[in-house]
Amino acid sequence: MEYYQPMIALNVYLEPYFREEILRRVLSNRTGLPDALLQRFVSEVKAQVKVSGFRNVLAAPASLFVRNAEKPFEKDSEFLRVILECWASTFAGDIPWLKEQFVSLGFTPTELAGEYPDADNAFLTGWPKGVTYSKLEQEIKSRNSALALSRNEIALLAIWVTGFLPGPDASLED
Length: 174
What we know:
The protein contains 7 helices and 2 strands. By secondary structure, it is mainly alpha-helical. The longest helix is centred in the first third of the chain and has 14 residues, at 35-48. Helix 1 (16-28) crosses helix 3 (62-75), helix 2 (35-48) runs antiparallel to helix 4 (77-89) and helix 6 (133-143) packs across helix 7. The relative contact order is 0.18. The protein is globular and about 50 Å long.
């Protein structure tokens, strides 16, 4: 029997610089978020992020916001869920195509994938046999060379779209 991992289990696979990129991307693209998602984002940020000297944390310089948002990003599954939902929405045009590609590589999306109603029971672990970070990137980029996504973005979108954390074999080199 497989057990769902909390959203914060994802942090094991994220480098600190990539967490910062995610937060900066969400912060800089927040005005383009759908209204309901923007409201959830603002609500979570107000509840979880405090920046000395700023009543409105979203008015703080980006570097201060990011620094103060890192702790809830690492410790609070609901905050992370909202941040990742905002982040994934910035790739909305690519997600249907990417989902097809992930399925063709052997992924079978979970029933919770992409929605995650319970941030404490979000992900299963284990990518398909033979799928590593580098293979995933190579396959996706060979199928669409115009796709301007980094290895980290492709891997995180694979997790978000399929509901599966990579597992220990994903970092093995081909």
